[in-house]
Amino acid sequence: MVINMAAGNPLQLGSIEQFCRAAETGSFTSAAETLGLTPAAVSRSISRLEQRLGVRLFFRTTRAVKLTTEGELYWKECHLALEQIAEAERAITGSQTVPSGPLRISVSAAYGTFRLLPLMPKFTDLYPQIDIEISISDKIIDFVEEGFDLAIRLGVPQDSRLVALKLEDASLGVFGTPTYLAKKGEPYRIDELNQHDCIQYISPNTGRPLQWLFTDELGTSIEKQITSRMRVHNDALGAVAWVNAGGGLYQTYRFAVGDALRRGDLVEVLQKYSGCSRPFSILYPQNRHLSARVRAFVEFLRSAVKS
Questions:
Q1: CB-based burial label for 107 (10 Å; 0-12, 13-18, 19+)
Q2: 272 — alpha (psi -120 to 50), left (phi > 0) or beta?
Q3: Fold identical between 2-93 and 169-279?
Q4: What confidence tens digit (pLDDT) does each residue in 137-196 have?
Q5: Against a cut of 0.70, is the pTM above it?
Q6: How far is 87 from 289, CA to CA, in rounded Å?
Q7: Angstrom distance (rounded) from CA 253 to CA 235
Q8: In the CATH scheme, what architecture does the domain 101-158+289-306 have?
Q9: What is the CA radius of gyration of the chain?
Q10: CATH no., domain 169-279
Q11: Please, which pLDDT band fits residue 257 given cuts at 50, 70 and 90?
């Protein structure tokens, strides 16, 4: 298939498909075998592609081929484009009645561990032909560079390149173990936190501690900057583990400590100042065609969270 470009340079989809297959297999011979071509034909096609682009896409040896830096970037974009074309063809022919294929999700640590993963068995039962890969990290991602279909993150980013669908407002509380509270006493006012061991979470994206949020008797929001000798960088789960071990007080989402609260392993303090929350959203690139499997996951998660 040939598509005429505005500059008069024809775009050869066949060559791009051969390039992608060679990139994935690391071999012109293997790519040729899967496409029913000769290795020489694949090599010539990719050489023409390199000549058209004006860059080298592969380092070639007698045994294998390896992508250059430019080739790696081109492969990621072309792989996504070919996948979108295949999805579009399935959509208009009605051939994809059941969502299938790989689905790569990036999710922040606390939300991934305590909210998303407990829901995944139901999703995988509903869609057995979808292959799930979940990366749990609080770091900001690059969708194209890292190849993710979507992400779940704290907040509603003001980025015109992303679509942000709000999932929920996750309620917050301050928690400690009975043993810690027996030793240090229970705080009854926000300013009493200055006399307590408070565990700080340091965001990997800002390098700054996450402020604690409260609501006063009049319903006014209060941000409390915690100063502490106890800090956890990059991993909110580490802070949860620390408070569970009796290390001090920590403000986190109620969904992250629900089981510990029900068992009595943790106690919520300063409840009269609670009522604050933080939003979580599903994110995906603005210009990306949503595959059937991505749509299925988004619809499932939004429904599951609401219920």
A1: buried
A2: alpha
A3: no
A4: 888 777 766 778 889 988 877 776 778 889 999 999 999 999 999 999 999 999 999 999
A5: no
A6: 9
A7: 14
A8: 3-Layer(aba) Sandwich (3.40)
A9: 25
A10: 3.40.190.10
A11: very high
